[in-house]
Amino acid sequence: LQGTKSAIMGALSKVAPVLLRPALRQLPFVRFSHAHLFRKRPGQLIVNRIKDLSHFYMIGIGFLPWLAVCTYAHIVYGQCELTDIPKEGPPPHYWQYERTPIRQWWAKWMGVSDMEHHERNLSYYEKQGIVSRWRQVEDRVKHLEGERLDYKGWSYQPVSSTWVDYGRWQAVRMRDQYEQHGHYTQ
After folding, report:
1. What does the pLDDT look like over 74-92, one tens digit per residue?
2. CA angle 178–180–182, rounded 5-degree value
């Protein structure tokens, strides 16, 4: 019984591809023609590479670790509590007034204090005020120049007879000189 079973299985394994193969009539005729074998389409290597790299750097390196750090800080430390300013000892730093440990770290290492921010704004607005006053003065000067016709326009330089004689001498020299690089005596 064992021998016949293996013989039947062997015969079926040889016959199975023939029995299970679809008939040639059922195959689409596209395979026998030349249409749509290799369709032209734009290359996607660069686009896929950009998508992969941006996904890796933004999500894998940027967003997920930051999300993990934020979650850990909020679970372990929670919100900071505001207490009275201590009477003895050094006064607290500006970054110790922030709500969460992450905000405190950011204010300490990346941000600026409120005093520095205020000084920067004062400096910026002072500079803008000076520039604004300069523009007002320039506009006033231009207005008065136009009103009084008091501006530098066409000017006349007096001509001396020496320059007229020198110009005439150069014209004669250029007329009589055959080559420009030559120095001929007259």
Report:
1. 888 888 777 788 889 898 8
2. 80
